[in-house]
Design brief:
The protein is built from seven helices and seven strands; from the N terminus they run ααβααββαβββαβα. It is of the alpha+beta class. The longest helix is centred in the N-terminal third of the chain and has 43 residues.
Length: 216
């Protein structure tokens, strides 16, 4: 019993030290976790729209590799013209408005939306039908109007290309198929689904003209 009584102060000090160390470390650990979460979000998200960026989209696509997916590419018609005439802040308003719209549409169908760069966005819909993807593309490309401008309301619409891809289909190939369909969608002035045999315009110059058709 004597040895136990003698050891009590030592044991008490150990316990108090352990508790104090834990209490001290917990805020540090929480802060480190928060910093890691912030860095991870920045690495996978677009700062302007708040959507996934290209890396984030690729990660989401990879996580659904075991099922078929619908991939939709969306870009804005005459966006460069609007940006040049009204300035980058107005352009950012348009991009943010489209981002919010795509985020809502993707959420309704348990999918993801992201910004690939510039005015080009993508939506990934896992296990969705072609009809669902077509309905989402139609809603995604509806006109966006910015009203609070000195020169009056500005309206910008969009174009879309769709690709229905099976399980295991490579990300780059899915993007290429949807991008080819987008060129055809620009010409047709409606969302177009990729079909076997569909190709880009014959030359780079033709491709640029196809992209710029709605920029005039």
């Amino acid at each position: 019993m004597h040895w136990f009584c003698a050891a009590v102060p030592y044991l008490t000090a150990v316990v108090i030290g352990a508790v104090a160390g834990r209490l001290t470390a917990t805020p540090v650990i929480r802060r480190l976790h928060a910093q890691v979460d912030t860095l991870t979000r920045r690495a996978l998200h677009d700062p302007l729209s708040g959507l996934l960026n290209r890396s984030g989209l690729q990660d989401a696509y990879a996580r659904t590799a075991g099922q078929g997916r619908q991939v939709i590419l969306v870009d804005l018609d005459a966006f460069k013209l609007a940006n040049d005439q009204h300035g980058h802040p107005v352009g950012d308003q348009i991009l943010s408005a489209l981002g919010r719209r795509l985020a809502g549409l993707a959420s309704q169908h348990d999918g993801w939306a992201g910004r690939l760069g510039g005015d080009e966005f993508a939506v990934i819909l896992p296990a969705a039908t072609s009809a669902t993807a077509e309905a989402v593309a139609a809603a995604a490309t509806a006109a966006i109007t910015i009203t609070d401008l000195p020169t009056g309301p500005l309206t910008v619409s969009g174009s879309a290309g769709l690709a229905s891809v099976p399980a295991g289909y490579p990300w780059d190939s899915a993007l290429t198929n949807a991008d080819i369909a987008l060129y055809h969608g620009k010409h047709a002035k409606r969302p177009v689904m990729f079909a076997a045999g569909m190709t880009y315009p014959r030359t780079e110059a033709d491709r640029r003209r196809a992209r710029d058709t709605t920029e005039q």
